[in-house]
């Protein structure tokens, strides 16, 4: 009996030590967290960033958050070709969630040219869309950290902003591609990690992770709607018409972090110039502050396009909102050596997590600008 108690105590010490370490990395200086909300580490059984989280377990964790907190509700809006649920965790204040359908109906008045708009009574709608390309892995894991933080945070600033906003967290826009990447990388990575770029973990094998079940690129399917995941997502999008839409991606491992504005020659002249000169810069200000706070490098205005409405970052621009591409240099697994040094999965997760918080701050601080822009767009 004493031996069993000693073993149990030792395990608890190890788990607590790991949780403290993880809290410091992702949450240090971010206020108190509600101890009644299960942490990601307690649920998944490992520190976020040590391995990739499975998509089905993410959905299960989101259901648990919705069950444990009156700040969260899980909505299933479709299924992928491989029968995985497409979900959004809806996070807001308890009073907002109780009144969610009324909030939605009020928000739809913003896109009705015949309806009058009272900005003060409106909630700002923020959609965080992660991991549309299956192998761009830090998105889904960052969604887990962000979901936990928004639900568990007792920081008065976050609590107050959630009263002014409804946040949608979509953990993966491509559940099938994400799971393909997860199985491959978790199957080949070692502990301690092998950071040699030639290691098998850092390739994709014979089945590309980028696309969905049919290897279709879902990030270029917002307008064609050739795939069931896109059809479900766009239908759900039009239930709410988000004001802010974040589209999380990854790029080459040697790169840092990119956010918009995009180059001026990629702007579409049929859209209001304020989309680029005002709304993108509102987000960019908050994104730069977030990454500056932890010393992460980034750039903007040098690459990627804003021209066609086929992308997750551009389609919202054509609906009176503002979409934005976020690109972080890929770790292609748990860790990879680059010319600039070691790039880790955990680092990418933290960057995406802080960008997610920054989006909420930007949206709530500039609520009137964003809502009036969308209203004017539909006049």
Automatic annotation (TrEMBL):
TM regions (residue ranges): none
Gene Ontology biological-process annotations: proteolysis
Pfam families on file: Peptidase_M14
Gene Ontology molecular-function annotations: metallocarboxypeptidase activity; zinc ion binding
The Peptidase M14 domain, residue ranges: 51-349
InterPro entries linked to this entry: Peptidase_M14
Record PROSITE patterns: PEPTIDASE_M14
Record's protein name: Peptidase M14 domain-containing protein
């Amino acid at each position: 009996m004493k031996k069993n108690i000693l073993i149990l105590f030792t395990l608890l010490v190890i788990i607590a030590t790991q949780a403290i370490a993880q809290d410091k990395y992702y949450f240090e200086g971010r206020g108190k967290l509600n101890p009644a909300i299960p942490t990601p580490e307690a649920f998944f059984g490992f520190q976020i960033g040590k391995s990739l989280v499975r998509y089905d377990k993410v959905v299960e964790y989101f259901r648990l958050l919705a069950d444990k907190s009156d700040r969260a509700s899980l909505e299933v809006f479709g299924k992928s070709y491989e029968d995985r649920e497409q979900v959004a965790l809806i996070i807001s204040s308890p009073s907002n969630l109780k009144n969610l359908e009324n909030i939605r109906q009020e928000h739809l008045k913003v896109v009705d040219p015949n309806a009058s708009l009272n900005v003060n009574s409106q909630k700002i709608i923020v959609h965080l869309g992660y991991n549309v390309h299956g192998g761009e892995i830090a998105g889904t894991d960052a969604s887990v950290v962000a979901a936990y933080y928004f639900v568990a945070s007792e920081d008065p600033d976050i609590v107050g902003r959630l009263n002014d906003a409804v946040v949608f967290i979509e953990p993966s826009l491509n559940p099938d591609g994400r799971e393909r990447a997860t199985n491959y990388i978790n199957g080949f990575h070692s502990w301690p990690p092998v950071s040699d770029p030639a290691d098998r973990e850092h390739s994709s094998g014979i089945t590309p992770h980028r696309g969905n079940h049919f290897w279709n690129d879902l990030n270029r399917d917002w307008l064609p709607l050739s795939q069931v995941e896109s059809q479900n997502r766009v239908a759900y999008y039009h239930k709410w018409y988000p004001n802010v839409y974040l589209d999380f991606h990854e790029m080459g491992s040697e790169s840092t972090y990119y956010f918009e504005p995009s180059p001026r020659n990629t702007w579409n002249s049929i859209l209001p110039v304020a989309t680029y000169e005002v709304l993108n810069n509102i987000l960019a200000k908050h994104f730069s502050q977030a990454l500056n706070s932890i010393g992460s490098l980034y750039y903007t205005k040098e690459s990627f396009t804003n021209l066609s409405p086929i992308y997750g970052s551009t389609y919202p621009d054509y609906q009176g909102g503002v979409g934005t591409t976020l690109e972080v240099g890929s770790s292609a697994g748990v860790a990879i050596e680059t010319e600039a040094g070691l790039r880790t999965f955990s680092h990418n997760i933290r960057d995406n997590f802080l960008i997610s918080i920054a989006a909420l701050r930007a949206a709530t601080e500039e609520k009137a600008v964003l809502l009036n822009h969308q209203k004017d767009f539909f006049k």
